[in-house]
Amino acid sequence: MKIAVVGAGAMGSLFGGYLSQKNDVYLVDIWAEHVQAINENGLKIEEQDGQIRIFHPKATTDAKTVGVVELAVVFVKSIQTIEAMEENISLIGPDTMVLSLQNGHGNDADIRKFVDKKNIILGTTAHGCTMKEPGFVYHAGVGQNHIGPVSSDRNAAEIVAAVLNECDLITDVSDDVMKLVWNKLFVNVGINAITALIDRTNACIADSPCANAVSKALVYEAVATANAGGANFDAAAVFANVVEVARKTGLNRSSMLQDVSKKRKTEIDKINGAIVKEAEAHGVDVPANRLIVNLIHAKE
Questions:
Q1: Three-class SS state of 18
Q2: Which residues have a catalytic role annotated?
Q3: Tell me: the pLDDT tens digits for 215-259?
Q4: Domains in the chain, please, with CATH?
């Protein structure tokens, strides 16, 4: 299958590398040094056991050189989705499937401006990784992917899941995509901003009583917000999952921590900020999330 990964940061590179084992893969990114390193030396991925694997996807800064693809995997930051779709529209044909495994809330609505609803798949991944240097990624956490269709048509999601599974990216298909989106948002809400503020890896959520307490406050507010909108999540079970994800990806530096460290704009408005926005619509008080949004913006 001809596949483009839009946004070849750590996660995009990881998926692009694995997918390149059995597909014609193009990593599309504006980071010229990273693109050059991949094209000259291959994409290096260091696994948790220290093994370094080398993959050979193609990489480019110009999507127009790629042409229309069968599958576009979107990994840009959620605050950049519309801009990325506009700049890379040459990849999209009438039958192109688009998979978003991004953080944040509202990515489906952004992608829908460019792609037929039946071709949009949303999902979550429990993988974690960190960029070590141009062309070199550390695979810090291994987990399962869950994807689902935005429409009632499962066909595109089933095709994409088969492609991912064939390349050792274990994936299942869910009919309740919004539950997937909320569960992913809960994990991001409970991990990312905290790690960014205290400059710690994900393990701090499981290991530090203070970080754990803050995470719990953020997640319980997020669950209350989701339930006010008609969902039916159990806050204790949701938080237990957040802690388990943090433990499994304990060595990972969250994307928000990486952004803060490099003085880049974060996705806070699409994560904890999305909770604040949804909470206002449903009359739910979320002081912990409001506070952490302001703290991240102050750090930016």
A1: helix
A2: 184
A3: 999 999 999 999 999 999 999 999 999 999 999 889 888 989 989
A4: 2-175 (3.40.50.720), 179-299 (1.10.1040.10)
